[in-house]
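HUMAN:
Just now I want nothing more than another pair of eyes on a protein record. I would be glad if you read both lines and explained how they fit together. I have put the entry right below:
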Amino acid sequence: MPTPQAPIGSGFGAGTTAAEVIKGIDLTGKTVIVTGGYSGIGVETVRAFRSAGAKVVVPARDIAAAKQNLADMADVLLEPMDLLDPASIDAFAERFLGKYDKLHILVNNAGVMASPLARDARGYESQFAVNHLGHFQLTCRLWPALVRAHGARVVALSSYGHRRAGVDLHDPNFEKRDYDPWVAYGQSKTANSLFAVALDSIGQHQGVRAFAVHPGGIVTRLIRHMSQAEIDSYKIFDEAGKPVIDPENNKKTPEQGAATSVWCATSPRLDGMGGVYCADCEIARALPSDQSTEMHGVRPRAIDPVAAGRLWQLSEQLTGMVLD
């Protein structure tokens, strides 16, 4: 039975940190993968899982940067992987499956935002490829280990940026329409949420549950493609040049930004649930229409099971991946 897209009274909120969420959780003997776990909120996500006793694996496009950023967590296992390179994804998955029998938590955290038009080796638009298709392929490749965990959770990092665009199933790679970096970003974030809806529907009968997460607005390298005018318009920095922190209005620290991912991955309150979009350590409200101007909540297009099924079929065609 589908989990209602409605708050459950988690006891946490917009200002909650990952350390607060993980308190009292024991992940000893559990194996966790966090893509992008060496940058921004990924580092704090890794820190929280590690603090609870988990063995954490971080696939990284830039191993040198990963070693530097995770220098205080030397027991985190780093492995090379590039989400724009299908062969790299396959190689990482093969190495992982050769070492580990089970995967208890997969956090598809890595991503790009509003980047100039670029394409992967297959010709797929880079934001759709990195944010969605690469993670789709990775999840499919790791599926046997997720099933063997008998209670695994997959967390897909979406964003309230899903309000910018739905998924164009007829032209997802901007081959026929003009490229707009923010439309492409919005499409990829809607895809991340729909991925969680479809994956949960497929996986719940095998003990695999999936969640989509809006982490909040956090100043990380993700903003590197934004113009100064865009940065100024969003009032990201104060007059002293420091990031504005206002959790209730979507502006968070990295520790706060990692909290909802950690909550979805570990909270006992979510046992038996899945396929929902979460924010502020809570299942988000379902908004009434795709035209809603509210910052909080999730639009219908990002949780539509029919759209999720169609995207899943398209993703299979584009990647050649099919779950066993």
